[in-house]
């Protein structure tokens, strides 16, 4: 039996619902996502308020969103690994550690962008 694939507006509507459900679940159940979303609710308006160039503003906003994206992907990796089995396995640990490292680098990028823009504002 072949499943009919959704197309057009229907596909977009269902994808939006699935995305909302995933984000809602993560905000409720994952402290790191909650913290990053709260930070984004503060930092994105701040980036829009500061007297910076459009490219600096875009870098600031995108770096914050990058952290959230990578954290969501890390959580997806962790959920998939846990679904396979909760017993310790070297490759499971590696997958989770690698996802965590990706979050670290996203946070590093965000910090570098914000500190660089802040430094240029301070020295202007």
Shape: globular
User: The CATH topology is what?
Assistant: Helix Hairpins
SS-based class: mainly alpha
- The helix fraction, in percent, is over 70%
As residue ranges, the low-confidence spans are none
Q: Hey, roughly how much beta strand do the residues contain? A: under 5%
* Number of extended strands: 0
So, CATH architecture?
Orthogonal Bundle
- Span of the ends, CA to CA: 66 Å
Q: What's the total helix number?
A: 4
Element order: H for helix, E for strand: HHHH
What's the CATH class label? Mainly Alpha
What is the count of structural domains? 1
Largest sheet: none
Description of the molecule:
There is one protein chain. With 124 residues, the chain is an all-alpha fold. The chain has one domain: Helix Hairpins (Orthogonal Bundle). It has four helices and no strands. Helix 1 packs across helix 2 and helix 2 packs antiparallel against helix 3 (54-84). The longest helix has 33 residues, at 90-122. It starts with 7 loop residues before the first helix and ends with a helix. 11% of the residues are buried.
């Amino acid at each position: 039996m072949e499943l009919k694939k959704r197309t057009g507006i229907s596909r977009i509507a269902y994808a939006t619902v699935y995305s909302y459900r995933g984000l809602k679940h993560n905000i409720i159940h994952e402290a790191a996502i909650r913290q990053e979303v709260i930070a984004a609710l503060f930092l994105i308006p701040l980036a829009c308020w500061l007297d910076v160039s459009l490219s600096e503003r875009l870098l600031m906003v995108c770096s914050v969103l990058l952290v959230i994206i990578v954290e969501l992907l890390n959580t997806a990796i962790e959920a998939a690994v846990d679904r396979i089995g909760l017993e310790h396995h070297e490759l499971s640990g590696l997958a989770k550690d690698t996802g965590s490292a990706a979050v670290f680098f996203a946070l590093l990028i965000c910090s570098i962008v914000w500190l660089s823009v802040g430094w240029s504002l301070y020295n202007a």
